[in-house]
Design goal:
The complex is a heterodimer of chains A (about 425) and B (about 375). Chain A is built from 19 helices and eight strands. Chain A is of the alpha/beta class and about 425 residues long. Classes of the chains: A alpha/beta (about 425), B alpha/beta (about 375). The interface between A and B is large, with 45 and 48 residues.
């Protein structure tokens, strides 16, 4: 790490590096993965590869083995294999500026290596690939593996409501507009039809209703975690741990295990708060991280604790779970899911939703600044403007979330340190 | 003569700073997947706002991340520079929804007080799901917005607008057929077609008919020995720089996958008994762009070109350094060409700058050399 003129300000609690629930999460993931491989391998059951913003609850309700593409990309990055699979993509004619976040999965499928050389033994060939249409690699995966590809289109939102997070849980039909929900619902029905075709089973709507209820319960528990993180005097859990836990659970939402794991997560965070166990006892600055998860470098978020008392207290991952996932009203659970997803991506990235949300979260979390991934994405300038206008300085972090070739440790650390010293000085506690 | 006049008008469409010459009788259209017939039937002049090759886009750069290419920057720069301020309305198609979102926000924040009302025509393009109810509502919403802006489209006016647009399309197609034969310069024809950005369609139709007469008497490319080229590009071909670079290698461009070139006309609108349904069917069927799914739909034009009995001698695929999406299709496009026995040259330079333009010419020349060498 680049040295700093700031000098050490405190001793981070290394003993708080890992949550105990990390072990139960990993154990479950291994068991789930082994079952998935067995079902899709020996048993020959159809497998679905799905994008992140897709109603996984349908697969859960129909008991279809599925994997979220970006989860696997994160796994590739965490295994420090993103450089290899990026080169595989290069070798097959996919140039470097194409999004690697979900694209790495295509690299894994294209790689000629034996499956055992791939992270967790590689992915099964899917029967169905389903994503939103802004995902360029997915169709190539389908073509490569002979799967059916389904690209879902989100209707454009023309009545933006900045305070969407206060309305969406119950008033989503009014918030989103029935015509838009109808349009996405028709596509979800098509997705269900595909699932019924590949499995030979019918969707049980009552079962889907139960799955959606479990998913909502899980997000309520996450909301309790967020409240603990935002209201406790200092940060009890590091951001990398929070992100890993939240998304590790999120990709299994709608299951009893996910609810139980979320409860264990909530309980452990609460226990740390009650015992006043802070990851950085000399916490001085609280920051927000904006953008896709730095799955290849989660430890980056704790790198500035010792030198400057900087903690990262908030990311999109937990907060979107609290504000955009829960949708209530179970008369037609498929419609409820359409209500969740019809503006989901816009909430994260586009004005006025994303900036207003980030600004509100900066207040509730008592943040002094933000670090935003600058990977050429969408809407970041407006998020920056919203935060800066509210007095929250923003640093753009020019790197890629998963491609290790874009990671320059010294340069990025220097940027953060300069930001801390020049823009946060005097704002901390 | 027709070609000269049209080229002059194309030059106006490329000029910077942009002067669209709009007033309150105009509706500015950003994107081509917008039912112009409904706008003209409402009594407005539909004015396309198309990107222009421009060196600097400082206002747009303030709002757009590095993932946006030159086309979006140029369009946004024009809108932020007041090019559409006097219009009655600005309508965006789905492809430009990011700019719609961003500009709505600039209005909300009070940064762009002089922008006219902004509207998005959100035609869903799904090939597997029937979205006609939503799309029909989009047409109704556009009609309602036009009415709020002072227009009114009765059934007779809409039918008349459709017939006039179909007549223009017929003229576009005759010129395209001549070019596909290899008559004249592909760049000149592309410019002639692109004059549609500044000419009203009736004037454009008259000029195109004159051009067609000239082209019909011009020898075909085959007799001149010039290789026939089809262009496929990551960005809308809002400029002729790729054409000039490719033709500088001694070729003639006979097709380009562009809504400002070979796909300018598309299919006719069948006025029939339900003009609204016919309008939607036409714009749904003729949609272009990266959002179109599946790949078979996006690549239908390439398929039609390489499978044609008069397939081009070379397909040129332009993947500029700014591309962040088109590249996902390129390997499959190359495979499609290979299967059809049509060679491919991939141009990766930025043709808007001189060095990149020259590099493109060299790339094409080398590909032709390889082809000649067998």
């Amino acid at each position: 790490m680049t040295t700093t003129t700031g000098g050490a300000v405190g001793t981070p609690r290394e003993d708080l590096a890992q949550l105990d629930v990390t072990h139960s999460l990993r154990r479950h993931q291994r068991e789930w993965w082994a079952q998935l491989k067995a079902r899709t391998g020996e048993n020959g059951e159809p497998f679905v590869l799905a994008g992140a913003n897709i109603p996984h609850e349908i697969f859960e309700a129909m008991d279809i083995p599925f994997v979220t593409d970006v989860w696997y990309s994160g796994l590739v990055a965490a295994k420090r294999r993103s450089g290899h699979y990026s080169r595989v993509l290069d070798d097959h004619g996919y140039h470097r500026r194409l999004d690697r976040y979900a694209g790495l999965v295509l690299g894994v499928y294209l790689d000629e290596d034996e499956d055992q050389e791939k992270p967790w033994g590689g992915l099964p060939d899917p029967a169905l690939v389903v994503t939103m249409p802004d995902h360029g690699a997915a169709e190539n995966i389908a073509a490569r593996t002979g799967a059916t590809y389904l690209g879902l289109e989100r209707p454009i939102a023309t009545r933006p409501v900045p305070g969407w997070w206060e309305l969406g849980r119950h008033a989503w039909e009014d918030l989103e507009g029935s015509d838009r929900v109808d349009a996405l619902l028709a596509q979800f029905r098509e997705l269900v039809a595909h699932c019924e075709r590949i499995t030979g089973r019918r969707l049980d709507v009552d079962r889907l209703r139960s799955v959606v209820a479990l998913a909502n319960r899980q997000q309520e528990l996450f909301t309790e975690v967020r409240t603990l993180l935002s209201t406790s005097p200092k940060l009890p859990v590091r951001l990398g741990e929070v992100m890993s836990q939240v998304m590790g659970i999120q990709w299994h939402r709608g299951t009893e295990w996910a609810v139980q794991q979320a409860e264990r997560f909530r309980d452990e965070v609460r226990e740390r708060v009650e015992r006043e166990q802070w990851v950085c006892p000399d916490e001085r600055y609280r920051l927000m991280y904006l953008g896709l998860g730095l799955w290849q470098q989660l430890e980056f978020f704790s790198r500035f604790e010792r030198s400057h008392g900087v903690v990262f207290a908030r990311s999109n991952y937990l907060s979107i779970a609290c504000d955009a996932y829960p949708r209530y009203g179970d008369r037609d659970p498929l419609r409820t899911l359409a209500g969740r997803y019809v503006t989901f991506n816009d909430y994260l990235h586009y004005p006025p939703w994303a900036g207003a949300w980030a600004e509100w979260e900066s207040r509730t979390h008592r943040l002094q600044g933000a670090v935003q991934l600058d990977n050429g994405g969408h809407g970041t300038r407006f998020i920056t403007a919203a935060l800066e206008t509210a007095g929250v300085p923003v640093l753009q972090l020019p790197t890629d979330a998963v491609d290790s070739r874009a990671w320059d440790e010294d340069r990025l650390s220097a940027l953060v340190l300069r930001f801390i010293e020049q823009r946060l000085a005097g704002t901390g506690t | 003569m027709g070609a000269t006049t049209l080229e002059t008008r194309y030059g106006e469409a490329q000029a910077w700073p942009a002067d669209l010459g709009v007033d309150a009788s105009c509706v500015v259209c950003v994107g081509t997947n917008i039912p112009i017939e409904l706008i003209t039937a409402s009594g407005f002049r539909a004015v396309p706002l198309v990107a222009r090759p421009v060196a600097a886009t400082p206002r747009a750069d303030d709002l757009l991340e590095s993932g946006y290419g030159a086309e979006f920057r140029s369009v946004l720069e024009q809108l932020l520079s007041g090019a559409a301020d006097s219009a009655a309305l600005v309508v965006f198609d789905r492809r430009f929804r990011d700019l719609y979102y961003y500009l709505k926000e600039t209005v909300r924040l009070g940064w762009t007080p002089s922008l006219p009302p902004l509207h998005v025509f959100d035609l869903l393009l799904s090939r597997s799901v029937d979205c006609s109810a939503y799309n029909r509502e989009q047409l109704r919403l556009l009609a309602a917005q036009l009415e709020r802006s002072g227009g009114a489209a009765g059934p007779a006016r809409l039918t008349g607008a459709i017939e006039a647009a179909n007549a223009w399309r017929a003229s576009v197609r005759t010129v395209l057929a001549q070019r596909r034969r290899g008559a004249g310069s592909g760049t000149a024809v592309f410019r002639a077609l692109g004059a549609a950005r500044v000419l009203d369609r009736e004037s454009h139709r008259v000029q195109l008919d004159a051009l067609h007469t000239v082209m019909a008497g011009t020898p075909a490319a085959a007799s001149s020995g010039r290789p026939r080229i089809a262009l496929f590009a990551a960005e809308t071909l809002y400029h002729d720089r790729l054409h000039t670079a490719v033709e500088s290698a001694g070729t003639v461009v006979v097709d380009e996958d562009s809504e400002w070139g070979s796909r300018l006309a598309g299919s006719d609108v069948d006025p029939g008994t339900d003009p609204a349904a016919a309008l939607l069917a036409k714009y749904w069927a003729d949609a272009t762009g990266r959002e179109l799914r599946p790949f078979d739909a996006r690549s239908a034009f390439l398929r039609s070109v390489v499978d044609d009995a008069a397939a081009p001698d070379l397909v040129v695929v332009h993947v500029p350094p700014s591309d962040t999406r088109f590249g996902w299709d390129v390997p499959a496009m190359v495979r499609m060409c290979d299967a059809a026995g049509v060679p491919v040259a991939i141009v990766r330079s930025d043709v808007l700058i001189d060095d990149g333009h020259a590099e493109a010419t060299t790339t094409v020349a080398r590909a032709l050399d390889r082809r000649a060498a067998g």
